[in-house]
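Lab notebook, bench 4. Still working through the backlog of constructs that have no structural model yet. Next entry is a single chain of 846 residues. Request: give me the structure tokens for it.
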Amino acid sequence: MFANVIVDVPAKQTNRTFDYKIPDSMRGWVGIGSRVGVPFGPRVVQGFVVGLSETADVAASKLKPIAQVMDLVPPLTPELVELARWISRTYLCHEITALQAMIPGALKAKYERYVTAGDSAGEDDAVMSFGQLSFDNRAEIAGFVRSKGHVPLEQLLERFAEDGALIQQMIKGGELREVQTIKDRLSAKKVLVVFPPEDPAVLEPCVGMLPAGAKRQKEVLEYLIGHPVPVRLTELALELNVGAGTIKGLADKGWIELRETEVFRDPYAGREFKRTQPLPFTEEQANVFEPIQDALAAVRHEVFLLHGVTGSGKTEVYLQAIRQCLDQDREAIVLVPEISLTPQMVERFKGRFGSEVAVLHSRLSNGERYDEWRKIALKQVRVVIGARSAIFAPFTKLGLVIIDEEHETSYKQEDSPKYHAREVAIERAIRHNAAVVLGSATPSLESYYRASESPARSGAVVRAGLAQGTKSVFGSSYRLLTMEERVQGRPLPPVHVVDMREELKQGNRSMFSRALYKAIEERLEKKQQAVLFLNRRGYSTFVMCRECGHTLGCPHCDISLTYHQSSHTVRCHYCGYAEPQAKTCPSCASEHIRFFGTGTQKVEEELGKLFPGIRVIRMDVDTTTEKGSHEKLLTMFRNREADILLGTQMVAKGLDFPDVTLVGVIAADTVLNLPDFRAGERTFQLLTQVAGRAGRHQLPGEVFVQTYTPEHYSIVTASGHDYEAFLQEELRMREAGGYPPYYRLILITISHEQIPMLVRTAESLVGRIKELLAQEYGIHDDSNVLGPVASPIPRIKDRYRFQCMIKYRGDSQLPSLVAKAVEAFDDVCRQHNVQIGIDVDPQLLM
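Model written out:
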């Protein structure tokens, strides 16, 4: 039996399978999806078994055997192995990169080098060549290794710090042998558990056998007689206030048993989730649930786009769809943006499905994530809620995938493999005949366009000029489901757009307009709460000398430094560079350094000045770095320990607080001015989402949007909660510019430390792409290939960056053609440290 293995060496030459013999002792353990250690050249590397066969392409005598099997049960299912191959082809990455993305970080290979005793006794001339090194050292080293069996190389070099050259000579001479092994980065957690006898009565005579001075041991025995169940050693010691040695002494006598037992790290240990029951549907909820229910009952693959306004009850639809899926003995995955994976969201799913839910997100420790993943693999849970990578949960009976806030750009991974979770979800669902529900109050234009062929067509799509039968360049169509009203008929909050240019004319130079100031004042008087949104962290967005105009910039990136008042530093939000606050201008030595722009820290300070005694909770990357800080801050706000929740995108979605009656957007133009064709769409989405935080319960809400461009269509339509009007205008502009959803994009980014080398490579690469386009498709029109030009941020981490954008209308062969062009530059990249990245269907163009 032979195994087809993809090895953990991401390179063009190794992006294929290699055949290995499966030793007889491993035949029962090696399957498709297994992680194995295989000899590859002079070392042992991790690999994934992607196929099994009875024959091999080369003679069996020439094949090496698998060295080790790393899991009792393969961590990847055969379906996930096939999915990795699809990701590799679709997003132009190495297959091993796609496979590695599917397993938790704890299972990523950790290579360790060991030294064992060799077969040779060593040569005399080898000893003589070391003159001053005595034979005693050689014998002591060999004896130490033999006594240990195998010793980590680092430990051996530390133990014999002066004998590094001798150890090297002994390895070359065969007296010692260097072996590389593979370990997981993390292991299962094990604890000591006390097991009393099955019949606790046998402990009663033991109590009398203890000497009079052993009072603590008597307490332990008496406790176990009354509580004859296994208990952790630490918990028993804490309960009785005794030392671990007291309990271990009883085990030494054979009266009780101590066993090392594997336990799961539970991120929600000690938390009680109040169980909830399904709520009665509104008419709209019932209407959208029916087709989802039908698809689940028929075990039919179908993709639904659920377009529901904020507060319309999409989550309850999700919950009841999951219940039907579980009743059919199938499994469900729920994806939410990392930023929306709040304790409140987790509580809803845990409250409905209890211990059947596993949670996967970046705020868990590595151990907690590993154990949540193991619960999935061991079939202990049937529902997974998590961020982007949770789409790779190793389910085998997948029935439903839900993607909430489907428009979020965070569903697209920015590092290789640059997959989009939405497309991966649909591909998985096809393989399982599963239903997919994409939910959003502001669907992405690509998704809404794909729903334009739906039986429930929206009038807006027709008015936007998408003719019947229009075929999306992004693939198969979705079925559109709409919910236009909030639960219990609650109105959407009125949105007031404040022109900050007029505020300046009236002499108001504050970051708060007079209307927003008055609204905050009223909420404080009424003991109500408010959410303030600003998509900029820090104190000020740039620092400039008023004498010469010099702006403090990052020495490693072409970006200005942001001032952080709490630490008195200026920081780069791209590479992490930081330096102390400047006292004088580094260009002209002037002391007239001033801070411009507004960040969340500055807003927090200004609130304190304008409203003495106001209680503000600030949520941004700087305040939520510690584990549990996100949950702690939101709990404080829910408990009315603050009047204002101030933050970046973290406060824009997924939050539901009954006393929030005011939402203020400090600066609506931050995203609008980015050099990205999606800037208008993202502005509309952000404003609509953050506005939806107000008035979600009994108290009516109100929203104030401060802007310097009140006439922009994305702000006008967002203020009217008018997605259809926005869609019509945005689609018109996208069609004129040749952007998605009318065209697909491939973004190629080339980077190097030296501009001349970068320019030569970029121009040669783009020239090669144009040649291939002409050969394959007869395309000689350069309008399909834009660039190369400098990226919007021309330098990051001391590397200059150029980019090229290719527009195409859905030809599936074009990405592979681009990959072929890039492969021709492999030698250039390797010899000159040029980096070339390919992003299919990019979400960020910076």
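Notes after review: The first strand starts at residue 2 and ends at 7. Confidence is low (pLDDT under 50) at residues 121-134, 454-470. Flag for follow-up if needed.
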